[in-house]
What we know:
By secondary structure, this protein is of the alpha+beta class. 38% of the residues lie in helices and 17% in strands. Strands 1-2-3-4 form a 4-stranded mixed β-sheet. Helix 3 crosses helix 5 (94-109). The protein is elongated, with a radius of gyration of 29 Å. The termini are far apart.
Amino acid sequence: LLIPEEIFTCGKKQKYEHEQEDAVTIENLKPAEYYDWIEFLNDEFLSVDHFKNRVLRQKGEIVHRFLALFENTNIEAEKIIELDRMSLDVTLDKTEIDVLKDHTISILNDTAFAHFFNVANAAIYNEIELITEYGHSKRIDRLMEFENEVWVVDYKYSDEMKDEYREQVNEYMDLCRGIYEGKTVKGFVLL
């Protein structure tokens, strides 16, 4: 015996009362769906176009950075851009950056774009990141939330791939429709 007889004791049978457990909620899950995972992998790798237009892409990123400084335009626009320009870590020379600075200021001062940059009755979110239902990260350049509407604004420095830009903005709009239910969602591409 593993237990010596002198310390071995047996208890008597007894009924234990158990507290009644809460009812378990059962949720029905949808069956798994097939997805083309190769498409998802394509998002993980850079395209050839990314390398072909490297300088153009870099200029666009600088204009994005400048525009992201503004919720609404103001008189100090040039000073803010000047300060930000000094901190850029890019391979462009000063004259190219100055051209981009002038381009950004012209966008901010253009009356055609005033309803995007001179807004008093909207919450403005620059470079806001949203996550899709598949866990993919999407960054919206400018999201403007009004009382009854949401505007998705995407900045582009070149108009080479207009169809792809529209598709991208439509994807952002679909994401926003899921978040801002009951509000009208509109999309814009600023070239």
